[in-house]
Amino acid sequence: MALNNPYNTTPLRNETAAGAAAQLLLLVLLGTALDLGPAGWLTGLAFAAATWAVLTRALSRSWLASFGAANRVTLARATLVGGVTALVADSFESPPPVTVLVALTAVALLLDAVDGQVARRTGTSSSLGARFDMEVDAVLILVLSVYVATSLGPWVLLIGAMRYVFVAAARVLPWLNGQLPPSTVRKTVAALQGVLLLVVGAGVLPYALAFGAALLALTLLSWSFARDIRWLWRTRDSRAEVGGQAR
C-alpha cells in the first residue's frame, strides 16, 4: 500500500503556480521592453513549464508542511534564471541586451547567498530545498556557459555540462552516488563559476583576460570534481559496508 502524504498539498501547489505566474510576468516584461524573438519566448515558456512540473511533482512526494521562506527565495532565483535563459536563447537571433542579462544574473547570484541563510535562521532546511537550490545553480551555470561559449569557443560548455556528466556517470557507477562531506572549498568553487562567467559575459574584459577567467573557472571546477571523485573512490568500500549493515 502506498503511503499518502498527510499534509494538505494545496498551499504547496499554489506556491508553484505563483512561481509560474511570476515567470510569465517576467517574460512579458522582457518581451515588451526588449522585443523577444520566438526563440526567447519558446525557451522561457519551456523553462517555466518544466520548473512548475518538476517542482510540483517533487513537492507532492515530500513531507513538507509548508513551502518555506528559503524555498520562496530559491523560486525567485529560478524565475530570474528563466529570464536569463530566455535572453541567452534570444541572443542567437539578435544582439543580446547585455545590461539586462547581467542585472538578472547578478541578482540571481546574490540571492544564492540568501536562501541558505534564510533556511538556517528559520529552521526550514530540507533535502528538497537543498536539491532545488542546487538544480537552479546548475541551470544558471549551464546557460551562462552557453552564452560565453559564443564568444570564447565551445570548450566553455564543459563548465556547464560537467555536473550533468557527473550525474549521468553516477547512473553507471553507483559508488559516485555517495554523500559527500560538507566542504567550504567546494561551495567557494561553485560560487566562483557564476561570478567568473558573469564577468566574462558582461564583455568588460579584453579577450585575453576573458579567456583566462573562463579557463580559470574550468580549471577550478575540474579540480573540485576530481577531488570529490577521488574521495568517493577511496571510501567506496567503507560506505558499501555501512550500507550493507544498515540493511
Automatic annotation (TrEMBL):
Keyword tags: Membrane, Transferase, Transmembrane, Transmembrane helix
Ranges annotated as spanning the membrane: 20-53, 139-166, 204-226
InterPro entries associated with the record: CDP-OH_P_trans, CDP_ALCOHOL_P_TRANSF_CS
PROSITE patterns named in the record: CDP_ALCOHOL_P_TRANSF
Matches recorded under Pfam families: CDP-OH_P_transf
Family: Belongs to the CDP-alcohol phosphatidyltransferase class-I family.
Annotated protein name in UniProt: CDP-alcohol phosphatidyltransferase family protein
